Amino acid sequence: MICVLGFYKRKPGLTHEEFCSHWKNVHAKLAMETPEIAKYIRKYVQHRLHPTDVFPGVESAGYDGMSEVWVDTIDDFRAMAMEPKFQELMAPDEEKFIDLAAKRIMMVDDPQIIR
Predict the structure, then answer these.
(1) Cβ-based neighbour number of residue 8 at 10 Å
(2) Would you state the pLDDT for residue 59?
(3) Strand locations in the chain (E)
(4) How does pLDDT run across 60-111, given as a tens digit for each residue?
(5) 3-class SS at 113?
């Protein structure tokens, strides 16, 4: 299992609330309601982060949100990203609300859930 972590800042001109609303109500629905994309996703989690909400003594990273996209393999993630519907729907939608220059992605191989 692979967990792809994404870190996002809102596009200049958008409020944090506008960013979060679009991400939840438009972007997530595109991912989860488009069969050609959703078939790769085992788990999708959005964490809406307010850039000014920080733990005392810790500097904010300045992101508006973080996501977890769980897929079976790295090849599945690559296939999803190359899927024509992904290119047609998801990539252009990101341009509407994400500061793409500030977007960061990390992949975690075999994440461990400790309870």
Answers:
(1) 25
(2) 76
(3) 2-8, 43-48, 65-71, 104-109
(4) 778 999 999 999 999 999 999 999 999 999 999 999 999 999 999 999 987 7
(5) coil
Q: Rounded CA gap, 37 and 84, in Å?
A: 9
CA-to-CA distance for 58 and 80, rounded, in angstroms?
36
Which stretches does DSSP call E strand in 2-110? Answer: 2-8, 43-48, 65-71, 104-109
Place of tokens 């809102």: 10
Among positive and negative, which fits the CA dihedral 57, 62, 64, 68?
negative
CA-nearest of 81, 94, 91 to 36 is 81
10 CA to centre of own chain? 12
Q: Using CA atoms, how far apart are residues 94 and 29, in angstroms rounded to an integer?
A: 13
CA angle, corner 1, sides to 7 and 87, nearest 5?
55
Measured from the Cβ of residue 36, the count of other Cβ atoms closer than 10 Å reads: 13
Q: Is the dihedral of CA 37, 40, 45, 48 positive or negative?
A: negative
pLDDT tens, position by position, 54-64? 677 777 778 99
Q: Give the H or E element holding residue 36.
A: helix 35-38
